[in-house]
């Protein structure tokens, strides 16, 4: 794989900040505490539950017998929601435009001229009986993109301790990404492996041997525990996956990534604007890797409950339109 393009879109100049940025630049990941208040986190938990209930399929957060797919809108891996224009619901945009959230990404990149991903949310219910699931350590950056190019984030709304479902990061793996892919590597043959024809889908699923390779090279696999209102950031070259909740707490998360607008090509901004106008979601990438996400399929057929607009559209503030790529900075 010697011919791959290597490009760092951001280089840390060695500045010591005295905050979470030092940890981020050292290990490629960091938790930022209290980005929003516990009250705001509770509000977002409630809005997520209401959104699940808006489909009228009998989902009840207090009745575990309803925690099955037939009572839920179509999701990915039992908990991730990208369809139904949910990525543009008012409460989702409210989270993206929380000043505390914008401030984190502005500090990280050294600019507040940012684009945000139209990314999904994760509502993970413990003990889902009909969930077929296996861990899938992966990166959302393809080995065809080498270098520091994107930072992912998730805003956490519910208490998240050892027993609660959550994010597992291979701490330090982003620093070894380029070295790892100097050799030809084959994606693990996982059930969620993307089809071969989608060869530029930014997803690489690692095998158990690969996981061992990173551990042998000094990385540590850690479960990220967080309080409501905390945000975790990781360099997109970091191996990660989720674990299922083992306690009683429902996991509530919003994926949020922001990158400098200057990273985006004009044609990508144009496409992003079109996706926004069509209420379509994106991948985790704010500035590239944009493509229409498929419609929700239930038993292989288009879900008749599909929506082509959010239930509650967001308020079109200046900041929102800038983050969406619609308005210039
Ligand atoms: Fe991921």
UniProtKB/TrEMBL annotation:
Xref: InterPro entries: Phytyl_CoA_dOase-like (IPR008775)
Highest taxon listed in the record's lineage: Eukaryota
Compositional bias segments (type: Basic and acidic residues): 298-312
Chain spans, region Disordered: 294-316
Protein name in UniProt: Clavaminate synthase-like protein
């Amino acid at each position: 794989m010697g011919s791959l393009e290597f490009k760092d879109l951001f280089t840390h100049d060695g500045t010591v900040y005295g905050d979470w940025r030092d940890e981020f630049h050292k290990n490629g990941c960091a938790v930022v505490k209290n980005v929003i208040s516990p009250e705001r986190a509770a509000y977002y938990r409630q809005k997520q539950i209401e959104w699940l209930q808006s489909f009228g399929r009998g989902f009840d957060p207090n009745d575990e017998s309803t925690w099955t797919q037939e009572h839920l809108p179509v999701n990915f891996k039992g908990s991730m929601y990208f369809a139904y224009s949910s990525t543009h619901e008012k409460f989702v945009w409210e989270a993206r435009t929380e000043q505390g959230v914008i401030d984190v990404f502005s500090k990280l990149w050294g600019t507040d001229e940012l684009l945000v991903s139209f990314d999904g949310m994760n509502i993970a219910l413990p003990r889902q009986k009909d969930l077929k699931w296996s861990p899938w350590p992966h990166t959302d950056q393809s080995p065809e993109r080498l270098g520091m190019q994107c930072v992912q984030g998730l805003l956490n709304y519910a208490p998240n301790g050892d027993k609660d479902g959550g994010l597992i990061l291979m701490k330090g793996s982003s620093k070894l990404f380029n070295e790892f892919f100097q050799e030809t590597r084959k994606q693990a043959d996982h059930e969620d492996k993307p089809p071969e024809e989608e060869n530029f889908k930014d997803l690489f699923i690692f095998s158990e041997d690969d996981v061992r390779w990173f551990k042998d090279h000094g990385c540590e696999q850690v479960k990220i525990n967080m309080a409501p209102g905390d945000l975790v950031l990781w360099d997109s070259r970091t191996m990660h996956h989720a674990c299922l909740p083992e306690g009683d707490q429902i996991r509530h998360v919003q994926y949020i990534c922001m990158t400098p607008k200057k990273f985006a090509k004009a044609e990508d901004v144009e496409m992003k604007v079109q996706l926004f106008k069509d209420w379509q979601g994106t991948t985790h990438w704010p500035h590239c890797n944009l493509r229409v996400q498929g419609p929700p399929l239930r038993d292989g057929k288009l879900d008749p409950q599909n929506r082509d607009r959010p239930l509650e559209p967001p308020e079109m503030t200046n900041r929102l339109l800038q983050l969406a790529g619609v308005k210039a900075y």
